[in-house]
Amino acid sequence: MKRSATVLLTALAPVSWGTTYAVTTEFLPADRPLFTGLLRALPAGLLLLALARVLPRGAWWWKAAVLGALNIGAFFPLLFLSAYRLPGGMAAVVGSAGPLFVVGLSALLLGQRATPRSALAGVAAALGVSLVVLKAAGALDLVGVLAAVASTASMSTGTVLTKKWGRPEGVGPLALTGWQLTAGGLLIAPLALLVEGAPPALDAPAIGGYLYLALGNTAVSYWLWFRGIGQLTATQVTFLGPLSPLTAAVIGWAALGQALSPVQLAGMALAFGATVAGQLGGERTRADVSTDVTGPASRPRTPRDGGGTPRRTRGTRTAPRPGRAAHDGVTERRRTSRLHGQSGANS
After folding, report:
1. With CB atoms 3.0 to 4.6 Å apart as the test, which of 18, 58, 60, 182 could cross-link to 45 if both were Cys?
2. What's the whole-model pTM score?
3. Per residue in 223-242, is it b (16+ CB within 10 Å) or e — as a string?
4. Residue numbers of the chain with a pLDDT score lower than 50
5. CA gap 229, 222 in Å, rounded
6. What DSSP letter does each residue of 84-139 carry, written as one string?
C-alpha cells in the first residue's frame, strides 16, 4: 500500500507537467521559452531553499550543480528549442524514449540488469505516445532533433544520478529539490537575458500563469519527483514520464476543443498500459520473503531420531502418555513385593 501511494504521488509530477503547454499557449507571452523556464525554476528553487533552510556541504556543492544542470538548467532550454523547431509532437515522441535511456543508464551506473519486459514496456510507451501526439509534417530539422535527444538524455542522466548519489544524511527531498531548481535557474538566467533580452510586460493572466508554473508545476511537482526517485527505482520513476504528453492530449481535447481520433485513443491506452507495466515486478526484498512464509514450514522443527519419535536428551523429562501413570503404579508395587520377599529369605 505504501509503495502504491508513492507511485501515485510521484505520478502527479508528470501529470502536472502535462498542463504546461496549455498554460503557456493560453496565458503567457509568446516566444519567451527561456524566460518561462527561468521563472519556473529560480523562484521555486529559492522558495524551497527558504523552507528547507539547508545548504549543500562539501561535495554536494558540485553534485547539486550537476543535477541542477541536467534536470533543469540544460533540460528546459533544450526541450523548448526542440519544441519550437520540430513539427507536431515530435519533441514529445523523442522524450517518451526516456525510459529506454534510463534502463540503459541504470545498467551502466547502478548495476541494475535490464530485463526484456522493461525494454518492451519502453518501446510500447514510445509507440503509444507517438500515436497520440505525432502528426503529419514536413522534413525534420536536424538541430531540433539533436536538441530533443539531448534534452531526453539530460533528464534521464539526471534521474539516474539522483538515484545513485541519493541525499546527504539528514537532508530531505525538499532541500535537494531546492538546490537543483536554484542551480538550474541560475544557469538559465544569463542565457535568457542574452537570447531573449529584457523581460516582457506581464498582464494579470500571465502573472497567474507564472505563479502556477513556479509553485504547483515546478516547486511541488519536482519535490514529488525527487521524493519518488528516493523511494522507487529510477526505471519505475521514468516510466511515469509518458503521463505528461498524455495529460496534454487530454487537456487539449477537454479544454481546447482538440479532437482525439481512434488511433490517438489506442495510443493513449498503449502508453498508459506501458506506464503501468513499468511499475510492476519490482525485486522482492529479504524482508518481504521472510514475512510471507506460512504453513508447516514456518513452525519450529523438533529434532527427530530415525524412528520418527522425539529424541530425548539428558536432563530432560517428557510428559507421560495417557494411562502411563496407572501402569507405572502396578510396576512399582510388584517391584516392592519382590524386594520384601528377598529380604525375608535372606534373614
Report:
1. 182
2. 0.74
3. bbbbbbbebbbbbbbbbbbb
4. 282-328, 330-347
5. 10
6. HHS-TTHHHHHHTTHHHHHHHHIIIII-PPP-HHHHHHHHHHHHHHHHHH----SP
